[in-house]
């Protein structure tokens, strides 16, 4: 079964360092997302991406964050200068379409744990 | 206002019993989708089941079924014959058609523990 894959599974970084989280969405999917989940809290939307540009971003997704689809398969989240409060599980997700019952399912990767020290 | 409400922060259930996890939602969009995800202690997010607002039948996937009561705006997840491996956090989420980017709106989750 096709799946969303994320690397690394866990990263520890010093405060102020740049981090890049990588994702390979499901190949025929057109919509891509990043979510994050601080330990013990709700899953929070960060950004959605469609047609090679950001469709929507949340208040969390400030200038420290950026996303890119550098080639036909990868989708990356960059955090320019990490803060302690960026420590969280970051989930990449993708969906085939934005409408229609069969295309609505959003599939998640296994997540990347980011620990900022 | 909360768009997705999961009123049970935690539940203990005996193995082999059926479990109902509650989810109520709030939307004015006539077209929406409701999802349930399972998050085991490993942290990954696993899709379980989907219900579209226009679907006539309640969704079922193996041991999972969704008790969709549209007028009451509830979408409870039912797990039949629970197993120890069902112990996890369970999240209800919604996607509204009016949101052109179709992001998921999440509930706070229910921690389910299955007792042997």
Radius of gyration of chain B: 14 Å
Q: Can you give the helix content of chain B as a percent range?
A: under 10%
Oligomeric form of this entry? heterodimer
Principal-axes geometry of chain B comes out as globular
Number of strands of chain B: 12
- Alpha-beta content class of chain B: mainly beta
Segments of chain B where pLDDT lies below 50 for 5+ residues? Answer: none
Q: Approximately how much helix is present in the residues of chain A?
A: under 10%
Largest interface: pair, residues per side? A-B, 27 and 28 residues
Counted beta strands of chain A: 11
Q: CA-to-CA gap between the ends of chain A?
A: 36 Å
Coarse shape of chain A: globular
Strand content of chain A: over 45%
Query: How confident is the prediction overall: mean pLDDT of chain B?
Result: 91
Q: Order of SSEs of chain A, N→C?
A: EEEEEEEEEEE
- Mean pLDDT across residues of chain A: 90
The value of Rg of chain A in angstroms is 14 Å
Class by alpha and beta content of chain A:
mainly beta
């Amino acid at each position: 079964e096709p799946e969303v894959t994320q690397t690394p599974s866990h990263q520890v970084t010093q405060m102020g360092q740049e981090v890049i989280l990588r994702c390979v969405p499901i190949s025929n999917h057109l919509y891509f997302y990043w979510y994050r989940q601080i330990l013990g809290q709700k899953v929070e939307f960060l950004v959605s991406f469609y047609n090679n540009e950001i469709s929507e971003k949340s208040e969390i997704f400030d200038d420290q964050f950026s996303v890119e689809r550098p080639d036909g398969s990868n989708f990356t989240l960059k955090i320019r200068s990490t803060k302690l409060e960026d420590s969280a599980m970051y989930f990449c997700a993708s969906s085939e379409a934005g409408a229609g019952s069969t295309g609505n399912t959003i599939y998640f990767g296994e997540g990347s744990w980011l620990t900022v020290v | 206002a909360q768009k997705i409400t999961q009123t049970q922060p935690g539940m203990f259930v005996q193995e082999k019993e059926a479990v109902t996890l509650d989810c109520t939602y709030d939307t004015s969009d006539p077209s929406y989708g409701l999802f349930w995800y399972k998050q085991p202690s490993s942290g990954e997010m696993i899709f379980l089941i989907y219900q579209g607002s226009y679907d006539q039948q309640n969704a079922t996937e193996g041991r999972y079924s969704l008790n969709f009561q549209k007028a009451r705006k509830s979408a409870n997840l039912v797990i039949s014959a629970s197993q120890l491996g069902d112990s996890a956090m369970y999240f209800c989420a919604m996607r509204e058609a009016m949101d052109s980017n179709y992001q998921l709106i999440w509930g706070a989750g229910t921690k389910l523990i299955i007792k042997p």
